[in-house]
Amino acid sequence: MEHERFVSTLYRQHGGALRTFIRRQSADRDQVDDAVQETMLRAWQTLDPAGSTEIRPWLFVTARNLLVDRWRAQRRRPELIVDETRLARSAAMTAAMEATLERWLVREAMRRLSLKHRQVVVELYYRGRSVRETAQVLHITEGTVKSRHHYAVRALRTAFDELEATPVTSETPQE
């Protein structure tokens, strides 16, 4: 309880002058408040209420040392500078590279399919035709379209695995 009264008295007697002193060193209001609180905390932990220490100079030296320590710590940590234009350009380039890579992977995987399997995949996925429409266009039965689709998807999975890419899903196109 004695320490609490001591710190309250310290703050009443020296808080305003301490705040003014710190404000001259830093324009950041939050940093001023933090430095005042930290200085008072250190006074509470360090000073003897019954002691004869010159308190005001001790408070000012402690506050100054706190600020110097913070400035040094900030200098050690590089400031992150955000360039929105550069970030947007980089994101666009990354997206374009990923799209190019994906096109190449799909093209390479499709190249590995037999002609009959490739025709079914093109009609079902790229032209968006149903199984019935694909059968009519390719002049084969719907069962043959489904069978070729099944084996084409398996072959694409194998191709993507060989290329170390994400495999295609086995979703069955519309009937």
Keywords:
175 residues; mainly alpha; Rna Polymerase Sigma Factor, Chain: A; Arc Repressor Mutant, subunit A; 2 domains; 7 helices; rod-shaped
Kindly identify the CATH topology of the largest domain: Rna Polymerase Sigma Factor, Chain: A
Main β-sheet, in a few words?
none
| Uncertain stretches | none
Distance between the first and last residues' Cα: 82 Å
Give the total of beta strands: 0
Tally of individual domains: 2
Please bin the fraction of helical residues: over 70%
Mean pLDDT: 83
User: What percent of residues are in strands?
Assistant: under 5%
Shape: rod-shaped
CATH class of the largest domain: Mainly Alpha
- Please state the oligomeric state of the protein chains shown: single chain
Q: Would you kindly provide a written description of the structure presented here, covering whatever features stand out?
A:
The protein has 175 residues and is an all-alpha fold. 76% of the residues lie in helices and 0% in strands. It has seven helices and no strands. The protein is rod-shaped, with a radius of gyration of 36 Å. The mean pLDDT is 83.
